[in-house]
Write a structure and sequence with these properties.
The structure is a single chain. This protein starts with a strand and ends with a strand. Helix 1 crosses helix 2, helix 1 crosses helix 3 and helix 7 packs parallel to helix 8. It folds into two domains: 124 residues, Enolase-like, domain 1 (2-Layer Sandwich); 278 residues, Enolase-like C-terminal domain (TIM Barrel). It is built from 13 helices and 16 strands. Helix content is 38%, strand content 19%. By secondary structure, the chain is α/β, with parallel strands linked by helices.
Length: 421
């Protein structure tokens, strides 16, 4: 029998941007202690689970999370002490019931997720299983395809780029370890290209370079050049994925590409721009190409490009089955970004992925721009059967920690490890 939960407590810590977040500790009756840290996003969807912040306090400019800490310690913990940590769904449902709001505004999505993840870790430890096998079963062994952020723009960097993320995807790599090597070599080749052109090699929130370029398309040209300089074949070995985060530059019905000086575009003009890029560059995935409330535009985008590339919903879906079902019905996407802190519990995140599978959609397990060294999402991606993963660039320890954890899992699985299509 698994030891029951003895205590739960939270602590205010800092994320990768130097802003407060929280870490939750779960102790079992047998002395087992496990913890989980919660990330925070800058580019957030309207329907995400509410992140509880101390907005009325002067501490950390109103960004503190002592309220979320108190939520864990005073509102959640008393209900969970004595429960079996293996009851993941029951525990998550109980927190949802206690909260009683659609956006987790009472307890805070950050408080609930910290507890949910820490409970899962404690249960895995109690069963003597690695987290990916505890969550995914003993046959879990498929490593995710990494989408590696190499150039940052938008809200993630002070660059001249409107689009938020330009990523490389090592689609031709035979193993995760090789995929990581290919990505690192391309990232370093890109750094040399930028330096050779006297462009900045400083990095943004997610570790990608943040140069001042003449246009968004120039970033694509640089990435293709870096892939070739590293000795790889564009599209065949390494492809490109984009996350414009278009909501961030959508104002009064227009897409305003003001950073790059490209002016305003309609939804149809944005779709045509993407079509030309897909024709010209080895792009295989487009996330948040349009604004979160541009549902008609998303349907048109998917109709025109969905048979050629992956159309990923993020801000419009928020890892929420309600909005994923709407997108399925409207054929607005063919894949979903999966962020644990968008929905707030492990159980609900699994449900979102199951809905994607049932509908024949792809899914991409994702980090946030404000990350911690916690590697839960790496194990979670393997538990869910691989899919794809976004955990940032090939630098900054809070990003590298996830890649290193995936290397450990692949090595642990040995010949049982699976990778790629």
């Amino acid at each position: 029998m698994t030891a029951s939960i003895h205590s739960i407590r939270a602590l205010e810590i800092l994320d990768s941007r130097g802003l407060p977040t929280l870490r939750v500790f779960v102790q079992l009756e047998d002395g087992t202690i496990e913890a989980a840290s919660v990330p925070s996003g800058a580019s957030t969807g309207e329907h995400e689970a509410l992140e509880l912040r101390d907005t009325t306090s002067s501490r950390y400019g109103g960004r503190g999370v002592l309220g979320a800490v108190a939520s864990v310690n005073d509102l959640i913990a008393p209900h969970l002490v004595g429960m079996d940590p293996s009851w993941q769904s029951r525990i998550d449902r109980l927190m949802i019931e206690i909260d009683g709001t659609a956006t987790k505004a009472k307890l805070g999505g950050n408080a609930m997720l910290g507890v949910s993840q820490a409970v899962a870790r404690a249960a895995a430890r109690a069963h003597g299983l690695p987290l990916y096998q505890y969550l995914g079963g003993t046959c879990a062994g498929r490593l995710p395809m990494p989408m590696m952020n190499v150039i940052n723009g938008g809200k993630h960097a002070d660059s001249s780029l409107d689009l938020q993320e330009f990523m490389i995807v090592p689609v031709g790599a035979p193993t995760f370890a090789e995929a990581l090597r290919w990505g690192v070599e391309t990232f370093q080749a890109l750094k040399r290209l930028l330096a050779g052109r006297k462009l900045s090699t400083a990095v943004g929130d997610e570790g990608g370079f943040a140069p001042q370029l003449g246009s968004n398309e120039e970033a694509l040209q640089l990435i293709v050049a870096a892939i070739e300089r590293a000795g790889y074949v564009p599209r065949e070995q390494i492809a490109i994925a984009l996350d414009p985060a278009a909501t961030s530059f959508h104002e009064q019905g227009e897409y305003r590409l003001t950073r790059s000086g490209q002016g305003a575009k309609t939804s149809a003009e944005m779709i045509e721009m993407y079509r030309k890029w897909v024709d010209t560059y080895p792009i295989i995935s487009l996330e948040d190409g349009l604004a979160e409330d541009d549902w008609q535009g998303f349907s048109e985008l998917t109709a025109k490009l969905g048979d050629r590339i992956q159309i990923v919903g993020d801000d419009n879906l928020c890892t929420n089955p309600i909005y994923i079902r709407r997108a399925i019905a409207g054929r607005a996407c063919n894949a979903a970004l999966i962020k644990l802190n968008q929905i707030g519990t492990v159980t609900e995140t699994v449900e979102a992925i199951q809905l994607c599978r049932e509908s024949g959609w792809g899914f991409v397990v994702s980090h946030r721009s404000g990350e911690t060294e916690d590697t839960f999402m790496a194990d979670f991606a393997v538990a869910m059967g691989g899919g794809q993963i976004k955990t940032g660039s090939l630098c900054r320890s809070e990003r590298i920690a996830k890649y290193n954890r995936l290397l450990e899992i692949e090595a642990e699985l040995g010949r049982a490890a699976l990778f790629g299509a």
